[in-house]
TrEMBL record:
Family affiliation: Belongs to the NAD(P)-dependent epimerase/dehydratase family. SDR39U1 subfamily.
One GO process term, biological-process aspect: cell division
Organism (species): Enhygromyxa salina
Protein name: Cell division inhibitor
Keywords assigned by UniProt, alphabetized: Cell cycle, Cell division
Superkingdom, natural source: Bacteria
Length: 297
């Protein structure tokens, strides 16, 4: 298996799981070395036939969405995803022996700010004016080009990730400091929904999509029981045994983080893993408090 973004939170966990079950996991990196393939996401792979012979490719590459969204940052967020995905598709197209499947990252940000609406994979994208809606649409469109390649067919899976929970990084890792100091609390009204998922279930879902030849198209990789921010805050406080009385006002979020704060902390996505469940996937961590206890207890 070839993995772009192999050193990131999801990529590193996926690579470890593949090796644990006896598969070869080869990363894709700007600095090729042992178990690494060389590439530049803008220019493509060092070897045009680099992906030949791999059973599967998982594309997780892209600029982090964390940080203030300046105009330059937003360009990098968008372009890095399109460039990396297009490079992967070109390499698959030129491979003498094509992979049978491409699993490409996406995000539930596709649905935009939707309040308490229940969202599944058939739900319409959010407003075109929302930055992450446009990014995820362009990202998925770039990946769908693999289905138009002439010759041997390549199955495509689009993994629409929610908020991936891991104690060592990502959103949860950033929250732990304030909460452990007893100054954590809900954000804004706390009514915004959060489609969360334990990192171990993310890895299991990716392996499921790789292995199942009957699985193609978009899948929400989120736990089956999303929660609102107030419930998430209370659960995290209970697991850490810390108070959660401090509230971050909506205006404060916008002043501190700008557009990024609105999209990542205040927007609401009550997304459900409808297609994963219908395909028979079983979540190890369906309930938030169970997931947090496993990660932090």
């Amino acid at each position: 298996m070839a993995i772009t973004g192999a050193t990131g939170l999801i990529g590193a966990a996926l690579g470890a799981a593949l090796r644990e079950r006896g598969d070869e996991a080869v990363g894709v990196s700007r600095s090729p070395g042992p178990a690494m393939i060389g590439w530049d996401p803008k220019q493509g792979f060092t070897d045009a036939d680099a992906l030949s012979g791999f059973d599967a490719v998982v594309n997780l590459a892209g600029e982090s969405i964390a940080g203030r969204w300046t105009a330059a940052k937003k360009r990098r967020i968008l372009q890095s995803r399109i460039d990396a995905t297009s490079a992967v598709v070109r390499a698959i197209g030129s491979a003498r022996e094509r992979p049978r499947v491409l699993i490409n990252a996406s995000a539930v940000g596709l649905y935009g700010d939707r309040g308490a609406e229940l969202l599944n994979e058939r739900s319409e994208p959010g407003r075109a004016s929302e930055f992450l809606v446009g990014v995820t649409q362009a990202w998925e469109d770039a990946a769908r080009a693999v289905e138009q390649l002439p010759g041997a067919e390549v199955r495509l899976g689009l993994a629409r990730f929610g908020v991936v929970l891991d104690a060592n990084g990502g959103a949860l890792g950033k929250m732990l400091g304030p909460f452990r100091m007893g100054v954590g609390g809900k954000i804004g009204s706390g009514a915004q929904w959060m489609a969360w998922v334990h990192v171990r279930d993310v890895v299991a879902a990716l392996l499921f999509l790789i292995d199942r030849n009957d699985c193609s198209g978009a899948y929400n990789v989120v736990a089956p029981h999303p929660v609102d921010n107030a419930a998430f805050t209370a659960a995290l406080g209970r697991v850490l045994d810390r108070p959660t009385f401090m509230r971050v006002p909506k205006l404060g979020v916008k002043m501190m983080f700008g557009e990024m704060g609105q999209a990542l902390l205040l927007d609401s996505q009550r997304a459900l893993p409808h297609r994963l469940l219908a395909a028979g996937f079983e979540f190890e961590f369906a309930e938030l408090e169970l997931a947090l206890t496993d990660l932090l207890g």
